[in-house]
Design brief:
Number of strands: 7
Low-confidence stretches: 7-13, 340-345, 352-357
Largest sheet: 3 strands, antiparallel
Strand content: 5-15%
Order of helices and strands: EEHHHEEEHHHHEHHHE
Mean pLDDT: 86
Helix content: 55-70%
Shape: elongated
Length: about 350
């Protein structure tokens, strides 16, 4: 930082302390949190001229910071010149200054972990979703700085804290970190599931539209029997519906686990594919039944086969594993061999299972 004490022509006037980088930030109307923290602690500098400069700069710099990052909701300035601030955007800003205290490495590890959580929250969660997460992260960092302040202050006063006291406080701090990480994980999972469900609804609407087109084609084209077209459309629709119900069921039972780091748009795309996959399996079963390749599946005598198709289509969409088993059995019946089975994407998985059912 370049500091310039400027003397006026009149020697009776007091010198004015200036800092060009602060002046430049004020001209831009945008200040970083690091600059704001520097100015905050200048107000307690040993030199009076610097203290007056800090007082003069603080309010304008505070306003410039809020212009760039949003209004400050909460802020903690520690005596060790560490600081953390939460803004209403919401964003979390952290400044960590190293000390020679023996507990600093462990405390800094907690702070860095909290910083990573805040960055992930900004990337994975919407503004309203990440606010409570960042509030918890802010409380964690503030607690870490309070502990660091206490340890440094006691050591400076020749009354250092006992090793047992430090160990207990660090254990509490790590416990708070685990709680914050768990809370964020749950929030990220809920957000990921919501976006996946958004994609599924879009995919289901697409499958429904395709089913409608199939029915319309059966009416307009003489080559396709109306009843067969309606049955096919109903089967594909049932497959998409089964896929939707399957995911909703797993979400209710907390069996659906998503990779929240996959990205919002990717989760929506994967969700949209799920009903399409269910409809595709249902279509495959319909074709095989029509071709007589599944002789072990028959409707009861006198029953409307339409209901059999609808039920099988729903099951095929609801359980991809069942549909794959049926296709494998059919392949064996007609003498076709395969190299392997398709695997589920790593973005979507079940607890206790790597296969998407």
């Amino acid at each position: 930082m370049n500091e310039t004490p400027t003397d006026s022509a009149d020697e009776s006037e007091e010198s004015v302390w200036t800092a060009p980088e602060y002046d430049l930030a004020l001209q831009r109307g945008s200040a970083s949190f690091e600059q704001l923290v520097e100015v905050f602690f200048l107000r307690s500098d040993d030199e009076e001229i610097v203290r007056r400069g800090g007082e003069r700069y603080f309010e304008p710099m505070h306003q410039a910071f809020e212009n760039a990052h949003g209004g400050v909701v909460a802020a903690t300035y520690a005596g060790t010149q560490c600081a953390v601030a939460l803004t209403d955007r919401p964003e979390l800003h952290i400044v960590l200054e190293q000390t020679d205290d023996a507990a600093f490495p462990q405390i800094s590890e907690v702070v860095r972990s909290a910083e990573v959580i805040s960055i992930d929250a900004v990337e994975q969660l919407r503004s309203d979703e990440r606010r409570p997460v960042l509030e918890n992260v802010y409380a964690l960092v503030a607690a870490a700085f309070d502990l660091l302040d206490d340890l440094v202050e006691k050591r400076a006063s020749k009354k250092p804290r006992s090793d047992q006291f430090v160990a207990e406080r660090l254990q509490l701090l790590h416990g708070q970190e685990l709680a914050v990480r768990s809370y964020f994980g749950q929030a990220a999972q809920r957000a990921a599931q919501f976006r996946y469900l958004e994609g599924m609804v879009l995919g289901f609407l697409t499958v429904s539209a395709v089913s409608g087109l199939i029915t319309a084609a059966g009416v307009l084209l003489s080559q396709i029997d109306d009843t067969s077209a309606s049955t096919l459309a109903g089967t594909v629709f049932s497959g998409g519906l089964g896929a939707l119900v399957s995911v909703l069921s797993r979400m209710t039972n907390r069996d659906l686990v998503l990779d929240a780091r996959a990205g919002r748009q990717m989760l929506r795309v994967l969700g949209a594919f799920r009903p399409a996959i269910g409809g595709s399996f249902a279509f495959a079963l319909f074709a095989l039944l029509q071709a007589g390749a599944l002789p072990f599946i028959r409707s009861a005598p006198g029953a409307d086969p339409m209901y059999l198709y609808l039920g099988l289509g729903f099951i095929a969409g609801f359980s991809e594993r069942w549909a794959q088993d049926m296709l494998s059995r059919t392949r064996s019946e007609i003498g076709i061999s395969g190299e392997g089975e398709p695997s589920a994407t790593g973005v979507v998985r079940e607890k206790h299972s790597s296969n998407l059912q």
